[in-house]
Amino acid sequence: MRALRILVIVAVILGGLFVVADRVAVGFAEDEAAQQLKASEGLTSTPDVSIKGFPFLTQVAGGELDDVEVGIENFEASTGKPDESIRIADLKATMRGVAFSSDYSSATATSATGTATIAYDELLKAAKSEPTDVGLGFTARVVGLSDGGKGKIKVNVEIDPPALDPQTVSVLSTVSVKGDRVEVHADSLPSVGGADLAENVVRSITDFQQAIDDLPGGIKLDKVEAAPGGVEITVKGSNVRLAG
């Protein structure tokens, strides 16, 4: 009985040491992954990297991690135009099946899903905010974007008729994803002072799109919906590069 008691105590001590070693190792790995991701994506701040699953050391021995969660506070995505970017806020992604190279210099996830937010003032950059001639002496421009409720965007358009004071009208619009672009399309067109303007002319102001390229690791836009804090997007990808 005494020998059994000693064996149990030793087992408990060894188990505790293994847990401590495992947590130290996972903390080191998270820090290293965060630094590599920061360097590879050119981030201005260090992202959050959290390796899920226990024990970590047995996952390493198998050459693949079950789940890795990544959080990037602000990411400057390319718009496809020189020297122009759009800020993607609160990007959170879960990487699954993360395999890494033998020297741990690179890691690739089998699949990834995530969420992020584009603030309305960021998306507004894609709209026509300068007065634009829409015919018959009228000019128009987009002056603001906000949540229109029920997944819609409210687009505020300032219309300046000839010899009259400017007026602002609101248009509820549908936001959607098409390829690598976020598209805003008015559900119905505003009345422009009773003037008979061509639909395509009015839509040249109310409707617009924003390209979003080069998201981290090659993830892509999946879905988008208007929300109080901005446009919420979901992203997904396969064979996503986490580091290296």
Could you describe the 3D structure shown?
- The chain has 244 residues and is α+β, with helices and mostly antiparallel strands.
- The chain is 24% helix and 48% strand.
- It is built from four helices and twelve strands.
- It has a six-stranded antiparallel sheet with strand order 1-2-3-4-12-11.
- The N and C termini lie far apart (54 Å).
Primary descriptors:
DUF2993, 12 strands, elongated, 244 residues, DUF2993 domain-containing protein, 6-stranded antiparallel beta sheet, alpha+beta, 4 helices
Report the radius of gyration as a whole number of Å: 26 Å
Mean pLDDT: 82
Distance between the termini: 54 Å
Strand percent estimate: over 45%
- Helices, by number, come to 4
Structural class: alpha+beta
In total, the number of strands is 12
Give the overall shape, derived from the CA principal axes.
elongated
As residue ranges, the low-confidence spans are 6-12, 14-18
Main β sheet profile: 6 strands, antiparallel
Helix content: 10-25%
SSE string, helix = H, strand = E? HEHEEEHEEEEEHEEE
Protein name: DUF2993 domain-containing protein
Organism: Streptomyces gottesmaniae
InterPro entries: DUF2993
Please sum up the structure shown:
The protein is 24% helix and 48% strand.
